[in-house]
Amino acid sequence: MAEFTFHHGGVSVPSLDEAIDWYGRVLGFEVEKRFYIAAAKSHTAMLRKGPLRFEIFEVEGAAALPEDRRSPPADLRTHGNKHVAFRVEDLELFLAEMEAKQVDIAFVVRESFGKGCFIRDCAGNLIEFVEEPDA
Questions:
Q1: Residue pLDDT tens, the chain, 135 long
Q2: A Pfam family in this protein (predicted)?
Q3: Could you tell me where the beta strands, DSSP code E, fall in the chain?
């Protein structure tokens, strides 16, 4: 089988500039490059934080994110891509930082199988963060 590695996740937003600001201020991503995808009518930016990349699309005439896509339990009832997830060392420390930045925390899980949370970006897109104990 051919080898491959993860390259990036992507989200569509109503305002590229607002999303670039949010992902930079809240999560520490920086703009790697900006470009226009004519076939999609999308003003686009590739953001980067170390080895992580996130592609942000502002598509002309795009529909707003439906309400059921803003809640993790409701979103799972619709087929398709759900979210990206990032690992954090300490969920409680991460949550405190997000609260201090007044981030919209959508859902927190503290179960025997693991701990994690979902936050919403400035457009309502879900992003998961998990605390995974070292094996």
A1: 989 788 899 999 999 999 999 999 999 999 999 999 999 999 999 999 999 999 999 999 999 999 999 899 999 998 888 899 999 999 999 999 999 999 999 999 998 888 999 999 999 999 999 998 765
A2: Glyoxalase
A3: 9-12, 30-37, 42-49, 52-59, 84-88, 104-111, 114-120, 126-131
Residues in the chain: 135
- Where b means 16+ CB within 10 Å and e means fewer, 99-113 reads eeeebeebeeeeeee
d(CA 67, CA 74): 9
pTM listed for this prediction: 0.90
For the chain, list the domains and their CATH numbers. 8-62 (3.10.180.10), 64-135 (3.10.180.10)
